[in-house]
Amino acid sequence: MGLDSVELLMDIEDYFEITISDSEAEKIYTVQQMVDTVANLLNIKDETADLRDVILERVNYALIKLEITSDPINPSDFISSYLSPENKESWDAFVSELQIKVPKPETIKENRTKFLNKLIKAVHWIPLYDWRLITVKQFIDAICVMRSMQ
């Protein structure tokens, strides 16, 4: 486990006031495995499928109402096909129509050099995301996580 992973693990333990044993930590390779481990330690049952369905329905409704798309979107679609956090007007209209808090990612900008993107990440401690690679399902999962932390 690298230093970044150890620091992330410690931050998660602090935030949720839990302790993840070394043997459990060694088995964590993906975000889903981390979520499952934390949920297990907090005795949280998987009831998020209903929430995901509701949020997907609301996202579909908002995108269709705003005429961003005329067809329902699929969880496997890339969210960048419909939205960009760089387009402030469209993003704000979507968030307003959705009427729930939506995490706005700090994205990797194509017009920046790789060095500048890394420098921004290092200075601000903000993870940079390649928005083009985020699926609708991942986006909805991020909304679900944000809602559960409120």
Automatic annotation (TrEMBL):
Domain of life of the organism encoding this protein: Bacteria
Coiled-coil stretches noted in the UniProt entry, renumbered to this chain: none
Residues annotated as domain Carrier: 1-42
Protein name: Carrier domain-containing protein
Gene source species: Flavihumibacter fluminis
Gene3D superfamilies in alphabetical order: ACP-like
